[in-house]
Prior knowledge:
The protein is of the alpha+beta class. It has helices at residues 21-31, 36-39, 41-45, 56-69, and strands spanning 12-18, 77-85, 94-105, 110-118, 124-133.
Amino acid sequence: MTTYDELQVGDSASFTKTISEADIYLFAGITGDMNPAHVDAVSAAEGMFKQRIAHGMLTASFISTVIAMKLPGPGTIYAGQDLQFRAPVFIGDTVTATVECTEKLDERKWAKFKTMVTNQDGKAVVVGTATVIPPSA
């Protein structure tokens, strides 16, 4: 855990995960998002990407993993997230979510982070900005 006072602009952390078919089905079941692009191979084969893709929000959720578990870490409260989905994530892709502190907001003791998820080829699949409330002690 990194407290607000310990946090420095430029601090960063990452989390890496290989996306499995089970991840997609479990996320679909939890959220109720049964879009055929995610869960129906026949339908997905006829779609834009010619195969099933991971939910964008599943991929983006790994940003939350980094913020909640690594930087700032346990006790952090998410206040906001801006996301842009840049490329699909397929079953078997390995994605890395990275956050980097870009600003400390002293008045409220909040912080802003540049957020990015890349695939195994280094291509950005999700980019954005997070605003969080780091632990105070």
